[in-house]
Amino acid sequence: MKDTVALIVDPDFGARIQEVIARVRHTWVVATPANVAVAERIWRASPNSPGLNMEGGVTTFIQYGVDRESWCDAILDSVDDHHNSHSGDPGYSILEVYGIPLTNRLQSVLAELGFSAFTSMDYGFCARKLQPA
Questions:
Q1: Rounded to an integer, what distance in angstroms lies between the CA atom of residue 89 and that of residue 80?
Q2: Are strands 117-121 and 124-128 parallel, antiparallel or unpaired?
Q3: Model-level pTM?
Q4: In angstroms, rounded to a whole number, what is the distance separating the alpha carbons of residues 60 and 115?
């Protein structure tokens, strides 16, 4: 799905990362030993350098804060900067967040980024921009 970006804050997501990247534009994953090992395998298998392969690629990010909610909150602006309509046409309109349920804090931050529809999922939650910004 070209309009979907995944954000994984589960520190033990591991091999499941490959299932996610197969169906989204790009995946951001918290940098833990289990997740980095999989990301490195993906980068080695990629025909392009990791920095140039946004489509179907994976980016790791450092944990800022003490919990998954903080990690998610801290990276959302960067995710949006890389995937909104100003950085690509079209910009992303769906964000799938793995490893944490939707909280009031995250909903507020996501609303500031233009997301207005939220759905709880088994894996976490899905946020949608009804009109891509």
A1: 13
A2: antiparallel
A3: 0.90
A4: 23
